[in-house]
Amino acid sequence: MTMTKTLDLKNTVNLLFATILIFMASISLAFAGEASEWKNQETKVKGMWSIEQRADGDYLVLSDKFKTRNAPDLKFFASKAEYSSINGKNATKDAVVIAELKSNKGSQSYKIPSDLNLSDYNSLVLHCEQYSKLWASTPLK
């Protein structure tokens, strides 16, 4: 009888642990995984982007086919606005900086600030802050 109770408890613990792992994985997949294209473009942006979860945090990752025109002060923002309504004048309103663009072409990774909860934002924006010029925006979700 004691052996059966021990096995039942062990099975229950294993089931609980598996449930927790599945729940955590589903949260992770909310942003990670599939690559996306840039949608709302005022300046041509080629290549895909994705959000990857790594041991030290989340990263915005640009594909090796990423390419756009070079400009000063190009930055990635997370915006609360819908991507289709973003333009050069409102691109930084209700938005936070993720990182400054390192290069106008090629594969790149940008660590997303740990205090930035992407689930609070609707769009990813590439914007020339110096000249208030939108490059492109796309849905985060």
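the 2nd protein, sequnce then structure:
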Amino acid sequence: MNGFIEWWNSTIGTVLSPQMSVFFISMIPIIEERGGLILAGPLFLDIPIWEGVFWCVLGNIIPVPFILFGIKKLLHWMSEHHLSRAAEWIENKAHKNKPKIDKYGMFGLTLFVGIPLPGTGAWTGTLVASLFDMDVKKASVSILIGIFLAAVIMTSLSYGIGSLFA
């Protein structure tokens, strides 16, 4: 991930404001808020902590409703337009992660989104919630709490634990 962040910062980041770089990188699947907070932190852009958190959280939240309400239609369209392998890969990713979420219900979804491990995050959590017809309101709340949990964890790692209390 750091290689991608370095590339972004030296290419795309040169034409965007630091805040917009952090915002847009937080919207990218897999990279998400975790990468945005690394970019915002003192190793790269050194954006003030609360400003970095704001742009990362906002960037990570924006794709959620589009995924919740549009992923099934997109996958169906992909299947009909010679992109069935990609659609199948996305569906398999959801199926692979469903047992982790099912074990603890909505609390499991919150942890899945919030604990920054490879293959977890808002994109995958929202994908699972949508494909398996979880209650939209409960899933949305779980995902939002997970995004905030990830922000706390990644801010403490990117900026240092003491900076959370400064």
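The CA atoms of residues 86 and 161 lie 39 Å apart. The chain has two domains: 2-61, 63-152.
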